[in-house]
Amino acid sequence: MSDVKANAEALVPKFKFERQLNQDQAGRRTTLLGTIDSSPALLILERAPFPSSTDYLSSAPLTLRTLKNLGANDIYHWYMASSGGSSSSTNSNDPEKDHDEQTDFSDLKINLIYPCTPKHIAKYSRQLVRYVTETPALYQLHVRPYMQAQREAGRLNWVFNIIEGRKEVEDVIYRTPFGQDADDEGFLLLPDLNWDRKTLDALHLLGLVERRDLWSLRDLKKKHVPFLRHMKRKFVEATTQVYPDIEEDQLKLYVHYQPTYYHFHIHIVHVQLEAGATQAVGKAVGLDSIIETLEVMEGDGEAGMEKLTMCYTLGEESDLWKDVFGPLKKKKAKEQQRQQQQQQKEEGEKLKK
C-alpha cells in the first residue's frame, strides 16, 4: 500500500504544463493539460476547504503575506490577500517584476464587517432554512412594516453613500447624471463587493436605483416596465463596453426576494458564475420574468407585484422567521390541533348516540 501511495505522489511533480483547458467555480478550480513521461495527462487543481481547527482560524488573519484593500464603505471593507508562498517559482532577470507578480498573486478574497451587529452574526451563522409562502395580505400586514422598520434603522447608509457620490465613486462603471433625471429614473452600476474584479467568469455587478420609493420587487408596477427595460439595456451595454470579452448573451440579471437590504437593486452576473444559494429558486427572480409578469398583469399602471403570492427561503435566525413566519406556523399548528381535537370529540359523541 505504501508503494502505491508513493508512486501516485511521485506523478504530480513530473507533470509538464501545456495549456489550461478550463477554470470554473468562480476561479477556484482549474483544469490543466500536460504530459507525464511524454504521455498526455489532465491535472485538476481545486482549492481545499478551510481547516476548522481553532489554531488555524485564530492565526489566519495574522499570517497573510499580502493584503490589498479594494474598497470601504461605512462598516463594510473588502480586500484581496495572499496566504501562501510565491506565485511563481521562475525568477526573471528583473527582481522588481518578480516582486510585483508575487505581490499581485492573491488566493483569498476577504470581506470585513466592522463593527458588526447581532443581525450580521445571525445572517452569516450556519442555520436551518425554511421555504415560506408570503401572500399579498401577509405582505401588507407583517412584511411591509418589517421592511419599513429596517429602512428606518439606518442600515442603508452605505447605499446612500454610493448614490450620493460620497463613497466608491472611482468604482462606478456607469451612472445617469445624479439628480438630473426629471422622471426620478436615475441609476448606477458598480462591482459587487463579493467579486474579485479580475475573474470574468465570476463577474458580479450591482445596479442601484437612485429613487427611494422602490424598496423591493414588491414595489414594481406595470408603469415601471419602460424604466426597467431602459435600465436593463444600459446595464448590459455598460458591462459589455467595460469588459469587451463578455458578450450580451453571457449576462443574466436578477433580483433577490427577500433582499438583504430594502433599496431596490439588480444583480448582473456572468452566466458561468456557479449558481449557489444566492441564485437558487426561493431567492433569485429573473429581471426578464418580472418584466413579463408585469406586462401581462391585468389592470392599469398601478397594478403590480404586491398583488402576487411569493415563495422564498428564510433562515431560522432571520428576524422575518422569528417575528413573522415562525409564530404564524406555531399558531397554525395549534389551530389544526384544536380542530382535530374538536373533530375527534364530535366523532366520539356520535358513537355514544
TrEMBL record:
Q: An example of a Gene Ontology BP annotation on this entry?
A: deadenylation-dependent decapping of nuclear-transcribed mRNA
Pfam families recorded for this chain? Answer: DcpS, DcpS_C
Q: Where is the composition biased (Basic and acidic residues)?
A: 344-353
Where does it sit, as one GO cellular component term?
nucleus
Residue positions of the active site: H265
Superkingdom of source: Eukaryota
Q: Where in this protein does the record put region Disordered?
A: 331-353
MF-aspect GO terms? 5'-(N(7)-methyl 5'-triphosphoguanosine)-[mRNA] diphosphatase activity; RNA 7-methylguanosine cap binding
Which InterPro entries does this chain map to? DcpS/DCS2, HIT-like_sf, Scavenger_mRNA_decap_enz_N
Chain ranges passing through the membrane:
none
Q: Which PANTHER family match?
A: HISTIDINE TRIAD HIT PROTEIN MEMBER, M7GPPPX DIPHOSPHATASE
Give the family per the record. Answer: Belongs to the HIT family.
The name this protein carries in UniProt is Scavenger mRNA decapping enzyme
